[in-house]
Structure formats: structure tokens, C-alpha cells
Amino acid sequence: MSGARTRGRVVVGVDGSPGSRQALDWAVRETRLRGTVLHVVVAWQHPQSYAGNIWSLGLDPSFDVEVAGAAAGEAARLTREAVAEVTVTTTSAAVEGHPTRVLLDEVSPEDLLVVGSRGHGGFVGALIGSVSQHLVAHATCPVVVVPTRP
């Protein structure tokens, strides 16, 4: 082994859940060890109603801009909090779409993808969430699933 370091980014998916915050903390530490860039990703989706797509309820299309802005603000806020006391180069993105698809599209083979074991939604008490399971099965890069600590 040559000892050369990889230059891929550490990409972390966050949704504001305790598990994703722990994944973000882990990703910050790993980014420092690797001497690379931390890329924080928040995926957002249009809300759904029992009747289907929420647009069937007649909401103003400017709602899109508000949701995207809120997601981008959340990504920036979480990133600032996580790296407040360390020196790490960061980027962040708020992308419309299902978290699995967004994260798969955001990574390249040389990256390291980090996610929490459980996010918002799904079945409480499951050991690993459906997004984490899908990413482990389909990502083209290594995936770290950080267990949620109580």
C-alpha cells in the first residue's frame, strides 16, 4: 500500500433527525482525518396529502421556492453547527427529490457517503431505515451507516 490519500469528498445526508445529526458529526471527524471536503446534502420533497400531490389542494407555486429556501437554510445551519469548532472545507446542497435518489446522484465513486441509521419517518424501532438500506445496496461508493445513539 502506497499510503496515498484519496481525494474524494465525504458526502453526508441530513434531515434534521437525531440520527442524521450524529452522522454529520461522524462525517466532520472523518473529513478532518482524510483532509478532504465535507459535502452536506438535504433532500426535500413536495408535501403529500391524503388526496395525492399537494398541488391538487391549490397551493401557490411560490411554495416551491419557500420549501427549497428552507431546505437550503437548514443545510447551511446544520453545517455551521457541526463545524463550529473545527477547520473543515464544506459545501452544501438542498436538492428536490427522494433522499435515496438525491444522495445517489450527489456522489461519485471516489466519495464516501455517510448517513444515519434512522431518519424521519418509517417504522420506529427498525434497526436501519429504508433509505440507508437502499444506499448500501446501490451506491457506487463506500457507504457508512452511523448507528443512532440514545
UniProtKB/TrEMBL annotation:
It comes from the Bacteria. Pfam families: Usp. Residues 8-147 form the UspA domain. This is Universal stress protein. It comes from Nocardioides panacis. The lineage of its organism: Bacteria, Bacillati, Actinomycetota, Actinomycetes, Propionibacteriales.
